[in-house]
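Hi everyone,

Forwarding the result from last night's run.
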Amino acid sequence: MQAISLDSGEVNGPVVKHWQTYLAHFPGLAWNSAELPVGDYVLAQGVAVERKSAMDFSLLVMDGRVPELAARLLLDFDHPVLVVEGDFHAGRFHGDPQKLREALAHLALQAIPLIPSPGPGFTAELIFSLAQTLETSKPTPSLRHGRPFDPLNSRRFLLEGLPGVNEGMAKTLLQHFGSPSKVFAASAEALAQVPGISVEAAARMRRVMEGA
C-alpha cells in the first residue's frame, strides 16, 4: 500500500492517534507528513481527503466558500473526497437551509463526494478503506459532454480538459495567456504564476500536456 501523505496539522490529530492505537487493524498502513496547500490526506491515483468538522463545514456554507474549496481541491487532485464529522444538518450549525442545499448541490455537480462521519475513528477507518481499495481498482475518470460550438466557449472547453481546471479557472487562464495554444505552450513555472494555481497543480497540468 502506498504511504498516505498527510498535512502536518493532522500529525497529532485524532485520526492518526486512532491508527496508532489500533495499528494491528491497519495492515500495510504507512504515512508521512508534509505541508499540503489543500487536502488533509493524499492517497494514490489523485485521490485526496479533506476533513472538516460539522462546525467548520457549516461556516464555509454560511460564508459561501464551499465553491472556493471545491475549486482548490480540483486544481490539485483528480478525485477529492470531503469528509464531514458530525451532523451538519443540526440547527445549531447553520441558519440558512437554502445555503446548505446550494453547497451540497455544488459539490454534487463538481463530482466531489461528501461523506458524513460520526467522528475521527470512523474517518480513520474510511481513509484506510479508500487506500486499500485504490490498491486493487482505479477511480472512474469523468467524461465531458455537450461540446460547445461558439469560439469563446470552445476555447474554454479545451482548457477544462486539463486536470483541476473548471470553468472559472479556464477563464482565468484565457485572460492570463490570451489563447489555449499559449496555455499549452506555457511552462510549469509560467502556469504557477496564474492566481489560484499551485506549483503542484501546474506540474500536473504540464505532465498531462506532455503525455508524461
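The CA atoms of residues 143 and 150 lie 20 Å apart.

Cheers,
N.
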